[in-house]
Fold:
Amino acid sequence: MASPLTHLGDIPIKVFMRDYWQQKPLLIRNAFVDFQSPISGEELAGMALEETIESRLVLENGEGGPWELRTGPFTEEDFLSLPPSHWTLLVQAVDQWLSEIAELKEYFRFIPDWRLDDVMISYAADKGSVGPHYDHYDVFLLQAEGNRLWHQGPKVDETNPRLEGTPLNILKEFDAENSWVLEPGDMLYLPPQYSHWGIADGACTTISIGFRAPSAAAILEDLAAEVAMGLPDSLRYTDAGAEPSTSPAEIDPSSVTRLQQQLGEWLKQPEKIAQWFGAVMTEAKYPDTVALDADDAADWREQLPQGLQLILNPASRVAFCREPATLFVDGEAFPAPISFAEHFAKFHEISWNNIEAFPEVAMADGLVDQLVSQGTLIYPPEDF
Structure:
C-alpha cells in the first residue's frame, strides 16, 4: 500500500495545506517521477462501453453544434465515427474498477478520506478539451500520457456568463493568467472556482482526483431537519428582557440578532451534527454499484477462518467518529467498538482476527451481516 505524499514537489504537505489548499493553484513538476499511466486510451474507451460506468464524450465541433455533450454507454461504432481531433472522453470513478487507479488515492490521504469524491480519467484526441470552465471542488490534475496545455484563469462564480447552446457550463469569457504544458508525472492543483481550460497537445490522458464538499444550501436544508428532531416542542423563540416596542409592525434588528443567538444555541448538538456529517460525507456516489454485490459474501463465517478477508467495496465509503463511537458506511451510521471502527476505516479490510477480537460485530444480523447484505463488504475482486 502506498503512503501519503510528504511533499508536493519541493513543498512540504503541511505548507501546502496551510498556504495553497482551497486558496490558490499550484503547478507541481514531476509530482510522480517516471510516472507510467495505469490505463491506456483504448482501455478507457472499453470501460465507456459498460452500462454500469458513467462516461461522457465532449466534441468541440459536434453534429448538434459547438461543445456537444454525449453520454454513455457507447458502442465501438461511436468511437470509430469520431473526428480525428477536438474531442474528449471522460470516465467517472475509474478507481472503483481498477486497483492501480484506486492505489493512487493512497497518496492523497493527507486529506481526509471522506473529502475524496472519485478519480475521473479523460482521454483526449489532439486539441481535445471540455472548454473553459470552473468546478465547485478541489482537484489534482495528474498528467498520465502525452502532453496537455493548461490555461488557468481567475476565480469565477455563477454570475459569470455562460456560452449558450450547450449543456456544458462553458464560460463565455476566459482570460488566462497562467499557462503551462504538463507532461507525464506533472500535476496541477486547482482550488474551487478557479477557471481553467485544458487542451490536448496530441493525444493525451489526464487523471483527475476530485474532492467533494456539500453546498451551504444543502447543509442548512438537511442539517436543520436533523437537528430539529432532537429539540423539544417547548423550546421556542424567546424575547425576555426586550425593550418596549416603538414600532410594533417592524422586524427590528435586535429581534433578528436575538434569533441568531438562539439558533447558535440550538445548534450546540455536536454529537448529532457528527452523526449527520458522517452519514452525508460517506454517501456512495454510485449506490447501485454497491448493491450489485449484495450478499456475495454471505458465507463469510465459513471463509474467513480459512484465511479469506472481507474488504470494503471499491464503490463504498467509510469513516468513523469517537464521540459517540460510530462507523459510517455508505450514508449510514452504525454503533461500533471504536478500535474496530478505526481499523476498518483505515485499512478497509476485515480478517478472522478482527472477528475474534470484536465478536460483537459478528453476531447474527449484526454489523458484518448488515454490511455484507447491502454489498459494502465483499471478497477481494480479481483486480483488487
Summary: The radius of gyration is 24 Å.
